[in-house]
Amino acid sequence: MGSKSVFLEDLHGLVKPERAFFLSADGDRNNIAFPTTHHTQLASYKTKVKGLLGSSVTKDKLKSNKKTLRYFKRVALKMMYSDATKVRTLPIENSEGKENHNGYIPVELTYAEEARAKNTTQHSEVNPLGIHDSTTQQYLMGLGNVRQEESQQSSQKIEYEYWQNHSKKYNERLGKEPGNVPLWLEFVRFQDEAYLYLFQGTDSNNKDSKKKHKRNRKALAERKISILDSAIKKNFRSLELQFERLEIGKDIWDDKKLKQEWGTLIFNFPNKIKVWHQYLIFMKTHFTSFNLSVVVQTFAKCTERLQQMHSGVFLTHSPPPDLGRCLVDIAVQLAQIWRQGGHMERSIALFQALVELNFFSPKHLCTKDTPVEARLALFEAFWDSRAPRFGEENAIGWAQVMERKQKVEFPEVILSGTQDEEDDIISQGGTTSRLWLALETSRERHHWLPWAQDPEDCEDPDRMVPFEELSPHLFILDSVDERFYLVLQFLNFFGVPDTKTFTVSIPTVNKGQKKCNTTEISTNNDNAFEPQIIETLSDIDLFGSHFQLGKTHKISEILNFDTVGPSLLEDSCEEYYQFLCRLLQQASNIFDQSYRNRITVLYIKLLSKRYLIKKKNNTDKARLKSFGKELKKHIKNILKSEEFRMYLPVYLEYGKIEEAMGHFDEAENVYATALSVGTASGNALDITNVDFPAVMDLYKSYVHLEMDREGKLCDCKHSNNVMYSLCSLVIDGKFDAADGSHAPGGNVLKAKKKLNELLEFYSDSIAFNCDSHVPKDNEKLLTGKLVVFIAILQLLTVGFKPACIVFETIIDKIKGICKDPIPHKLEDIALPSESAITTPIMEEKRKNKGDKLKILESLYEDYLWLIEVSSQLGHLVRDGTMSPVSLRAILTSAVQVAPENQRFLLVLAQNQGWRDLLGGLEIHSQRSSSIVVLVSQILPHVQRTVTL
């Protein structure tokens, strides 16, 4: 034992075997030596008292707090009504009055079945299983209205408290911020929702519910007006509150009261252009009080008051800024009213009188000391003499007529052509209404000029325009920019294409400077008058050149809108076309060269449009060919003159005309010649160059022409020309016309590298632009062109998808900065002091956002062109087509950026799926859409109807 033996044999018989072992009652302590304590042996603690130590919280109170909150409790209802979601309680219909219509023929019961039925419990229709108590059965049968009424009253009380708390918050904040105009307007709109719960009550089941509804609407409008009256007393200079008050009063006031309120507003704010703008809109659109003569008198009153401010007669108020342009826009609106009222002669006479008065006044009347009344007194003699006026044949101007003092002889009346046309219409027969409409339409197309013959020979007195009708609407313009704006606006009114491209900026050359400065004359300023035109189907060319369908096409038969009055779209209106040509030719002679260049471009655009219309209307090929020769000869004569020999936009329009005639080789030569001249100095991508925008436009037209020809011919020659010229333009800064040879690979890599560096350098100008001078505008233009150049290189060297990634990357970058505005909440409305401080910043942000939207529109146009061209380059590009789903997503985004873009609308309408046709397009968030937008929405249904 002492030797610590282990085995029994080691003891040598000292111990018996049965006594060699013993049982120990003590546990081995090594068994409890675990690395961690077992989870079953860990101590757990539960807190029974929630709160501070030492607080006297009884057990009963703790138990009551632990009860589950049920949905029908009043506290739970308050929580439910804290959400903005409304719940309408529907009345329970009584099932007793309904007849039970079974779908089988009932059979009488036997005696055994009746006895068995008496022994069983009787079950009703609402308790077929016999499991409901009497109260539940009454509730299901529509009885027991006491509890239902109590629940409804409780619900209505909670709703009342909810809306009353919101109204209290508004009142408290308005008491602290009486000058917060957006908050007042928000409170007025809040009344539409709150009035149902705070003031109306529950009278929906009353027999006089319609009368009560009218009374409630009137009471609601009166409540809004009372709120606005209080707001106007504290914010008298706020026009938004005044306009909101008049808009609400339109529903409850009579015409006399409404005109009186507008007259008071005009009297208080005679120098606010917004007030005149809204007042003229009201006079033109208010149905019950509309009268053409009254509307014309209102325009005369507006022009007279603004003219008095301009001349210094009206001294109580200072004249508004941009007064000249505002007067021009008012005159254009009046011309629209007259044209839509069937008085096209007055519209043309107004334009002629304004041009003669502002451009051709005698020198002794052009001084500032001469009052307007003195000019008009002498001008009346010229107007009544019926000498040729601006735009007519042999027109020499008011001053020359006064100097020569020639006696005017009335021309002979020639009605042979129009009389024959009227005889043909009558000979066709038909109803009286159809004949009357056809005759009036024919006369409107031919008799649009003011009567020039002897007044005694005039059968229709409305064709004569006396001076008394025009004199209240005449005014004097001081600056050359305002006069040029007058000519552009009326050219746009007459249908001359692309006049809006010159209304944003007008380059003027200052003495001693070689570079052109930009003078902004747009009406984007808030103080400027915003023209509002009520469009008709005769005022537009649906989708322009993007919608080319012949007259024999079925869709064109459905969308055939006959124009009322003269129009460039009608091949028969040759006199109107000649009149517009004379207008542009005579207008180019009264301006300096900087303005004359743009008028010449408009003139060439007019010639091109006339050719396209003749071509679209299936004019005789011989006549069309002779007209094309005369047109080309005329343009070449323009290019031979010294002032237009180096003017690149004229070459651009000349190339487009050659392209429209089908002379693609000649168009390519015109573009190449102009690009070689414009980039001879090696600064093609220099944004400080005066000709930089023209060079970019020329190269864009050249690339479009070459890629279109590549898609048709599939000879790889024209795509090589694009690659070669693009590399030379980027690397050397010069345009080098290729002969179809491949561009060296090293040049392609150099061009890609330089384009990426330039894009990275100028990409910030899109996101962060604070100035509006020309270099910044050219930076935006260059950035967009760089994206197109890189995409073209990717398309022709790598593939279609990498080219799409180039566009999507830059578009996503711009969209990440130009986000949609977040709707204002009650707490987010800025204080008046804060808004006054941030006004310049907000104005700059709004301007920058508009610039970014224009860049996005241009990028989307180029992106769609790339998608269209790549689908035709199957021999060069693999997988060059885009799925319809992806294309519709791109088009939807493009329309959201530019809702009025005709190309986006047309392509989207032509790529609609059957789901879109069933559900319709809800992508236009504007309150009032133009006619082009509305027609684009019905165009898919028209196409579907034609194909069926």
List the helices and strands and how they pair.
Blueprint: H1 59-65, H2 74-81, H3 111-119, H4 134-140, H5 145-176, H6 181-200, H7 209-234, H8 239-249, H9 255-268, H10 273-285, H11 292-311, H12 323-340, H13 344-359, H14 372-385, H15 398-404, H16 416-428, H17 432-446, H18 467-470, H19 480-494, E1 505-508, E2 517-520, H20 554-558, H21 574-588, H22 593-616, H23 621-640, H24 648-660, H25 664-678, H26 692-713, H27 717-731, H28 745-762, H29 764-767, H30 774-797, H31 800-817, H32 832-870, H33 884-897, H34 902-910, H35 914-919, H36 931-947
Antiparallel strand pairs: 1-2
Helix pairs in contact: 2-5, 5-6, 6-7, 7-8, 10-11, 11-12, 12-13, 12-19, 13-19, 16-17, 21-22, 22-23, 22-24, 24-25, 24-26, 25-26, 26-27, 27-28, 28-30, 30-31, 30-32, 31-32, 32-33, 33-34, 34-36
Descriptors:
948 residues, 2 strands, mainly alpha, 58% helix, single chain, 36 helices, two-stranded antiparallel ribbon
Q: Tell me roughly what share of residues is in helical segments.
A: 55-70%
Structural class, by secondary structure, is: mainly alpha
Tally of individual helices: 36
Residue runs with pLDDT of under 50 for 5 or more positions: 87-101, 202-207, 504-552, 770-775, 818-839
In whole angstroms, the N-to-C terminal distance is 114 Å
The proportion of strand residues reads under 5%
